[in-house]
Design a protein that fits this description.
Arc Repressor Mutant, subunit A, Nucleotidyltransferase, domain 5, 5-stranded mixed sheet, disordered N terminus
């Protein structure tokens, strides 16, 4: 067991801390000049030049050519980016009724993604077979060299011991206290890491999502289906994921009803929905994806549903936001795909609970990964571990979002 430390893909491993600092700065800025890398890191320009040459030789970075001159004029700087095809990470999101899997390039670019529908999974052995199938398929479909895969992250709803890969509690299968990583780790040469789904979503936001450069933020993972509803909170403090004393941080009780319950209460409004009105007498045929698509096409009933849902979510998370006082809150999961339709009522209800100075500094946004938020986050855990900088040097990259 590797305890989550990515050690595979030896000939391309980052060789020292300075390499990691430079790669983190490039990843945080998407593209950046050597001069800015020297300025932000505090290293000498000659040192940066040598590091970039070494990273380029290992195909970890690309030279994009010359960028724009600064307002002071002078020579146009050369810009650098992470080579998306240098290495890959697999992310898996295990939910009731489906498994979502993604493959990311080293820069966080989504190379492939897929949803697998599943029946009720009775035991860990059958779950392992589903996971192996999804991993084999994503590798085959992507056509990548398996030797370039850094690792796989698996995220599941429930309480997960990140250090051991053990699932302590979950609603996905009846059994508790089973390893989520052993079956895959014995089959593949790359390491496998397990994490709670909301925590994975938070890491994804930090590494490749909308929280790049943020030191204190929350993700609100909204899971909603026909008969199941729930939210999970991922919490990053001072740049590090917070698990809590028993890996239970962010495990909160939802305060809103499942989809069918809410839709049933809106029966008298079905005639307002140009798309959904035909489902008045067959509500059981609806699913969350259909509601999202209808809302994004302006269906009045679907829009009203997400506005109601947003108010409920805003009311239930306001106290958590008030307690933590984060700079940013990211709404993740399928519902993020309706954007302002759900963000506006969430903001409205949260603002009622916060003091003025807290509201001024808070930014609530939607994840760009939508339904793949957790799978992207699970893969991002692998990238995060691969690029991790020891704590005593972490201040060197504390201002990624303001470095340009």
């Amino acid at each position: 067991m590797n305890n989550g430390q990515v050690q595979s893909y030896d000939f391309r491993l980052i060789r020292n801390i300075n390499d990691r600092i430079v790669l983190n700065l490039i990843l945080g800025n998407e593209s950046i000049s050597g001069a800015d890398l020297a300025r932000i890191s505090g290293m000498q320009p000659s040192t940066i030049s040598n590091i970039l040459k070494g990273l380029k030789k290992r195909d970890l970075v690309n030279n994009l050519g010359k960028g724009e001159s600064t307002f002071k004029g002078g020579k146009r700087p050369f810009l650098w980016e992470i080579d998306s095809n240098a290495a890959y990470a697999i992310g898996i999101d295990v939910e009731i009724g489906q498994i979502a899997v993604t493959m990311l390039g080293l820069n966080g670019e989504v190379k492939n993604k897929k949803i697998y529908k599943t029946d009720n999974i009775p035991n860990p052995e059958e779950l392992a077979q589903h996971l192996i199938t999804s991993v084999n398929d994503i590798i085959s479909d992507s056509g990548v060299d398996p030797d370039k895969i850094l690792g796989a992250g698996i995220a599941i709803a429930g309480i997960v011991n990140r250090e051991t890969g053990e699932v302590l509690m979950t609603d996905i299968i009846p059994q508790m206290k089973f390893s989520l990583t052993n079956a895959l780790q014995s089959k593949y040469d790359f390491p496998v890491i397990a994490e709670n789904n909301a925590n994975a979503s938070a890491i994804g936001s930090k590494v490749v999502g909308t929280a790049k450069g943020e030191k204190d933020f929350m993700t609100i993972l909204v899971k909603l289906d026909a008969h199941v509803s729930g939210i999970g909170i991922g919490l990053v403090l001072n740049g590090e994921l917070y698990h809590g004393s028993s890996y239970c941080s962010g495990e909160v009780t939802p305060e809103y009803p499942p989809m069918y319950n809410m839709i049933s209460r809106l029966r008298d409004q079905f005639n307002t929905g140009k798309i959904l009105k035909k489902y008045l007498n067959k509500i059981e045929d609806l699913n969350i994806r259909m509601l999202i698509d209808a809302a994004n096409q302006g269906d009045a009933l679907a829009v009203h549903y997400f506005q109601l849902l947003g108010r409920m979510i805003g009311t239930s998370i306001a106290k958590h936001i008030a307690m933590i006082n984060p700079a940013k809150v990211i709404i993740t999961g399928d519902v993020a795909e309706v954007g302002d339709l759900i963000l506006d009522p969430i903001n409205e209800m949260v603002s009622y609970e916060l003091v003025a100075i807290s509201k001024e500094n808070l930014n609530i946004v939607a994840s760009k990964s939508g339904r793949y938020s957790v799978a992207v986050g699970a893969a991002s855990i692998v990238i995060d571990e691969f690029l991790k900088i020891p704590a005593f040097n972490s201040n060197s990259i504390s201002n990624l979002s303001t470095s340009r």
